[in-house]
Amino acid sequence: MLLVEALLLKALAIPLLARIAWLDFTTQRIANRDVLLLLCLGAGSLLLLMLRSGSWWDMGLSASAGLVLFLALFPFWVLRKIGAGDVKLIAVVPFLTGGKDLAVFSALLLVFALVTAGIMKNPLLLPAGAFRLYVQHLDRKGVVPFGVPISVAAICTTALLIYESVVLASSSGILNQLN
Length: 179
Fold this sequence. Notes:
Elements: H1 2-27, H2 32-53, H3 57-78, H4 84-97, H5 102-121, H6 128-140, H7 147-172, H8 174-178
């Protein structure tokens, strides 16, 4: 039963991540309450999984990774190269994805960051409506909303985790036992 609740907490984080991505794109702001709620959802999910497995390893690895990411990106915030919300968001994502799936998140973040950089260099690749919105956005601020690739990578990683858990549960017969 703890697995179902942990997956539910992860599933609740997906719309929150989508909201964070949209708000970061449109306003260049990531609210502290959204990051804190994401931290609560991720830590709660990890705690439930920890209680199920009896091991603190994933929680410790997630906390360590979050601290390392925060400390690594903090100087970039001081130099005004990245926003404070982006630093806080990327420090919280390891709690959502879990320590063992940080490699998946990192690979997806690299892909989505490269796509974002490609769009920044060549916005003509976008459809007409999105292009117009993007050009207006750049005219207003001239910044890159890094929270968007972070959120999209976290959404994809979380969806993959949920999918793997459901497939594993259905193939092992756990779902039949619950019914």
